Amino acid sequence: MSSLRSLARSLGLSITTVSRALDDYGDVAAQTRKRVRETADAIGYRPNAAARRLRKGASELVTLVLPTEPGQFNEPLYIELLAPMGQRLAREGYDLTLIAAAPGPDELKTYRRIVEGRRADGIFVVRTRRQDARIDYLQKLGFPFVAMGRCDSETVYAFVDGDGESAFADAVRRLVTMGHRRIVHLAAPSAFTFAVLRRRGYARAMAEAGLQPQVIEHRADETGGCGAALEALNAASRPTALLCATDRMAFGALRAARQRGLVVPRDLSIIGHDNLVTSQFCDPPLTTMELPIAATGEKLAEMMLARIGGADPGTLQEVCEVRFIERESTAAPGA
To answer: Which pTM was predicted?
Structure first.
């Protein structure tokens, strides 16, 4: 493999000029940068990554911090997002890393370790909360970050989010059109912004239809969905439809229905949200909603690149339409 010195000699340029050209500095003419890169490729020269990062004062890493117990990467929605995000970042020379941090007092320590140790050039914040100390911390420092979701703070920051309020209102209207009148919402914890927005959409559409809303809040996973569904199904007036905040809750609701001897969708319709891969293969295949994974991952990565480049976060905010996906877990009551 060729050295930087021999590459510079072959081009008739100084080592400093070649080094800055390879790092794409604007003070080197575009034609010169192009010639240096082409020659480096031709002779098989590869810059020393550690030295390049030291020169640029950058880690060339972007981190997604998953709010779960360390080593427990069991959030399928965010795992599915990694591929489109990582592919887009890689085209600009960034690697995407994944870290787990348990929600609670120690969570901010993980963020401080990343930021103060300069272990990443940007952070993706997921599962945003209504009062989110992570966002407040990063915003106060001016550290580049992009959130998947919104919070109640007046802080201006970059985010991509789905219009969960409209999506859940639409889901209720679809169920009402099918003939359902007893529709229960299995809600995620109200500390999360997405949970509040989805609940608000459900309540609005129920009021429009003149129906009594019923909300059961539980953990946003299979265990929580099963527990909440059993509570709903044990009521004197059993619901004919369950509108679940997440697919994982819906999977739990499917199990609860089987435990009660109910047939989905004849006896009970179930709707989820996220369109996890598993939702296509459960029994029956789950009617759900989604922010398309590939497009969402691409948008998050594009915003991150813009923030690292110094773009105003106020110009990097997008609420996207949520797509409804009808499968076999919904039908008219008794159908």
So the answer is: 0.81
Phi-psi map region of 274: left, alpha, beta (phi>0 left; psi -120 to 50 alpha): left
Does the CA dihedral 75-72-79-281 come out positive or negative? negative
Determine whether domain 61-162+293-320 maps to CATH 3.40.50.2300.
yes
Lookup: tokens for 274: 């996220």
Q: What is the CA radius of gyration of the chain?
A: 25
Query: How far apart are the C-alpha atoms of 193 and 225, rounded to whole Å?
Result: 18
In 3D space, the residue among 187, 190, 191, 283 whose CA is nearest the CA of residue 243 turns out to be 187
| Assigned CATH for 164-290 | 3.40.50.2300
Along the 335 residues of the chain, how does pLDDT read in single tens digits? 467 788 888 888 888 888 788 877 778 888 898 898 888 888 877 766 555 544 455 678 999 999 886 666 678 888 889 999 999 999 998 999 999 888 887 889 999 999 999 999 999 999 999 999 999 999 999 999 999 999 998 889 999 999 999 999 999 999 999 999 999 999 999 999 999 999 999 999 999 999 999 999 999 999 999 999 999 999 989 999 999 999 999 999 999 999 999 999 999 999 999 999 999 999 999 999 999 999 999 999 999 999 999 999 999 999 999 999 999 999 999 87
Q: Right CATH number for 4-56 from 1.10.10.10, 3.40.50.200, 1.10.260.40, 1.20.1050.10? A: 1.10.260.40
